[in-house]
Amino acid sequence: xxxxLAKSFTYAINGLRTCWNDEANFKIEVFLGLLSIITAFFLQxxxxxxxxxxxxxxxxxxxxxxxxxxxELCDKLRPENDPYVAKIKDLAAAAVLISSMGAVxxxxxxxxxxxxxxxx
Length: 120
What we know:
This protein has helices spanning about 5-20, 25-45, 45-75, 85-115. By secondary structure, it is an all-alpha fold. The protein has one domain (about 25-115): Orthogonal Bundle (Helix Hairpins).
């Protein structure tokens, strides 16, 4: 592995560590994602369903990290109260909300029939 690529991975791991240490919501989302994966294995869901669950978890976590990055950037550039910064932060938080609501819906669609004993 070349030096530049290794440094890129180091930066990415540092970002994950920062989000884990600083963001309670990220920890909750990781926990719920792991719970979903464990449930998927327990219920022996189909491979394509597992792929959808995994992609959904990945999207929620990635959006949460981007939200955190926007918040950090905004706070650095404009530490004082600014209506534009508030709007940006609200929009980024809305993206997390939408991705999380989508994840819940996907969870219901995929896990629901298994819990209800339906063979779909």
